[in-house]
Design a protein that fits this description.
Elements (H helix, E strand, L loop, with lengths): L1 H20 L22 H21 L5 H17 L1
Helix pairs in contact: 1-2, 2-3
Length: 87
């Protein structure tokens, strides 16, 4: 439960903090969170860190869900690894 909560908090907290640091502002309706981690972004480390923590938390959650079906755990872990790759 803790790792799943950390995943949500890291993603939402990361994009909220990164958006607040944007010099020209950030419009979540017309821009993607990928823009917050773009190379030209001055504080891209904030969103990148949020994505890394989110990906790791998904992998830990998949590992910890021993009672869940193996396929579901594998898909969750794959999503975590993909999030790490995006970061």
């Amino acid at each position: 439960m803790l790792s799943a909560t950390v995943a949500v908090m890291a993603l939402v907290g990361g994009w909220t903090w990164a958006a607040a640091l944007q010099p020209g502002g950030f419009d979540a309706r017309s821009e993607t969170i990928s823009a917050l981690a773009a190379t030209a972004t001055p504080h891209r480390w904030v969103m990148t860190t949020g994505l890394v923590v989110t990906g790791l938390a998904h992998v830990v959650t998949a590992w910890a869900l021993g009672a869940a079906h193996r396929t579901g755990r594998a898909v969750l872990a794959a999503g975590g690894v993909a999030t790490l790759a995006v970061a």
